[in-house]
Amino acid sequence: MNNTENNNGIQESLQNVSPRTTKYICKVCGGTFNESNELDSHIAELHHPKRTVTLNDIVNSIFKGEMNFPKTKAEILKHIEANKDDPSITPQVLDTLRKLSDKRYETEAELAFELNQIK
């Protein structure tokens, strides 16, 4: 076999290869994106290291008005774990909720006060 035949065989093989689509994967949550700028925007909005979790993030975005009180810390964490596929439940939110005192929270205001005390 000479070089010309070898090169033609390679070219034929390359023509039969389907085009690869590159997926960009978020290392924090595993989300996939077709474009790198989509991944960059996602990270900046949801996983930015300097982003702090606010009471609004937790009480309004996470519970979506569905949390009926009183609830214990364990019940709150169970609710979050059951809904962890929700993109608004970030690692920062989980970390913050895990720092709650082990007690029963009678109202949303009591929970908000406790969350405000967590540093």
Question: Could you explain the architecture of this structure?
Answer:
By secondary structure, this protein is mostly helical. The protein has two domains: 20-51, 2-Layer Sandwich (Double Stranded RNA Binding Domain), CATH 3.30.160; 52-119, no CATH class. Helix content is 51%, strand content 7%. It has six helices and four strands. The chain has helices spanning 3-15, 36-47, 55-62, 73-82, 91-98, 108-117; strands spanning 24-25, 32-33, 71-72, 104-105. The protein has a two-stranded antiparallel sheet with strand order 1-2. A two-stranded antiparallel ribbon has the order 3-4. Strand 1 and strand 2 (32-33) form a beta hairpin. The longest helix is centred in the N-terminal third of the chain and has 13 residues, at 3-15. It is elongated and about 50 Å long.
Topology summary:
Layout: H1 3-15, E1 24-25, E2 32-33, H2 36-47, H3 55-62, E3 71-72, H4 73-82, H5 91-98, E4 104-105, H6 108-117
Low-confidence stretches: none
Mind summarizing the main beta sheet?
2 strands, antiparallel
Computed over alpha carbons, the radius of gyration is 24 Å
What proportion strand?
5-15%
**Spatial strand arrangement across the major sheet:** 1-2
- The tally of beta strands, per DSSP, is 4
* Backbone shape: elongated
Number of helices: 6
What's the number of structural domains? 2
For the termini, the CA-CA separation is 72 Å
Helix fraction bin: 40-55%
Give the overall average pLDDT.
Answer: 75
* Structural class category: mainly alpha
Order of helices and strands: HEEHHEHHEH
